[in-house]
Design goal:
Blueprint lengths: L7 E4 L8 H16 L3 E7 L4 E5 L2 E7 L5 E4 L2 E3 L7 H11 L3 E4 L4 H13 L3 E4 L4 H8 L1 H4 L4 H23 L4 E3 L3 H11 L29 E6 L9 H12 L5 E6 L5 H7 L3 E5 L3 H9 L3 E4 L8 H8 L4 E3 L15 E3 L5 H9 L2 H15 L4 H27 L1
Parallel strand pairs: 1-2, 1-7, 2-4, 7-8, 8-9, 10-11, 10-13, 11-12, 13-14, 14-15
Antiparallel strand pairs: 3-4, 5-6
Helix pairs in contact: 4-6, 8-12, 11-13
Length: about 400
């Protein structure tokens, strides 16, 4: 970092919810507290309006109103959030940020981008959610009504248009951050903006094999899933895995599913072998991971996959798809398997039927996770800020000259 630490005003899409943006945002604020960095977090919450000034770290939490509507079970969008602008503007004036950092095109992100423009501040934006792929997945109910060829073309058009619109939004920032190299390259191509890598870290003390409470000789194999139970997570694949394992004669397994979402009732009807634990946090979540034998994560849309890294830290190998960020975490045949949907059940069976291989994967998974720290992630973000601020300073000098 430079001698002068930048004063950062951070506008996350979510903070208290159960998703990757919120998870990263909580760790970002904690990093600022550990390092005593000047950091203002402006976020939405269910509680009444609250402002705290704890040393260098300030927080402004603002409630969503009656006009807000659900995007997910625990995530909402408030089209009337603009009513908070006077207060936000007052706090920003007092804090005097050097830059604003947003995390996406939510009401907070749009407001943060508008304020950066209005105040003449550099804007940073991090990409956490593949909204273009989510849009296509959410439209599947409609696409199924169309002929096959037209359905495929329409689905691709929805994805392309959503990506183009989102890229235009992100192009307003001077620097972008994304959690995998493939996405960074795509964003640089579409926006013309630099995109440093911003992966995710893991708390390897909380998530650890030592949290396991199951007996080693219970004869069961536990297949785990942690995340939102929604269509874009491809959770229907879990039902297919169960059916195919049973056809293969694999019987000593059950699912442990942590999370909630719109597909929960559908899954409960079709997964008689599953325990649905709901949303878990902290030590309860760490214990759940450690009690798994294999993590089964069929999502095609995740930009990174925090939950995959948490599973690896717990000594649990992961089976993931070749799409999205999780494939950048998993090492094929070392910390797990990277396979298409059609091979998920076979990959699960192959690992569980080879105890020596499974044990080696558990050890390698933990070793890899120990190399991923949150401090290293956010140090990289602050290095990206240096380039953003240097470019803003050059522009200012040119205009003054």
């Amino acid at each position: 970092m430079t001698a002068r630490i930048p004063r950062v005003a951070y506008f996350p899409d979510s903070f208290h919810e159960v998703n990757g943006v919120a998870h990263t945002s909580r760790h970002f604020e904690a990093f600022a507290r550990r390092r005593n960095l000047p950091f203002l977090c402006v976020r939405a919450g269910d509680r009444a309006q609250a402002f705290t000034e704890d040393g260098n770290v300030w927080t402004l939490e603002l409630p969503r109103g009656l006009l807000s509507f659900a995007l997910e079970k625990d995530l909402r969008f408030d089209p009337a959030f603009l009513r908070h602008v006077p207060l936000i503007d007052e706090v920003l004036e007092r804090f005097s940020p050097d830059l604003i950092h947003i995390t996406g095109p939510s009401e907070l992100g749009m407001l943060g981008a508008a304020l950066a423009h209005h105040l003449g501040l550099p804007l940073a934006a991090s990409w956490h959610t593949n909204v273009h792929e989510y849009a296509a997945r959410r439209a599947e109910w409609f696409l199924r009504l169309l002929p096959a060829r037209q359905s495929a073309a329409t689905g691709q058009k929805i994805e392309d248009l959503t990506m183009a619109a989102t890229a235009r939004f992100y192009a307003g920032a001077g620097v972008l951050f994304a959690p995998n190299r493939e996405l960074c390259a795509l964003l640089e191509k579409l926006t013309g903006r630099p995109c440093p890598l911003m992966p995710r870290g893991v708390d390897s003390e909380l998530f650890a094999p030592g949290r396991r409470t199951r007996r080693g000789d219970d004869g069961e194999r536990v297949l785990g899933f942690v995340g939102r139970l929604s269509v874009e997570k491809n959770v229907a694949q879990l039902v297919t895995v169960q059916q195919e394992l049973e056809r293969m004669g694999v019987g000593n397994f059950r699912f442990l599913i942590v999370g909630h979402g719109a597909e929960e009732a559908w899954l409960r009807e079709r997964l008689p072998r599953a325990e649905f634990a709901g949303v878990l946090r902290g030590e309860a979540l760490a214990e759940a991971y450690a009690n798994m034998d294999l993590f089964v994560f069929p999502s095609h849309t995740d930009t990174f996959g925090n939950v995959v890294l948490e599973a690896l830290a717990s000594g649990v190998p992961a089976i993931v798809t070749p799409d999205g960020g999780p494939r950048s975490i998993v090492r094929e045949d070392e910390t797990g398997r990277i396979v298409p949907d059609a091979e998920f059940a076979r990959a699960v069976a192959d690992v569980l039927r080879d105890p020596a291989k499974h044990a080696a994967m558990r050890t390698a998974a933990r070793a890899y996770a120990l190399t991923a720290s949150w401090d290293a992630v956010f140090e990289g973000v602050y290095a990206g800020y240096e380039g953003l601020l240097a470019a803003a300073w050059r522009r200012g000098s040119e205009l003054a000259g």
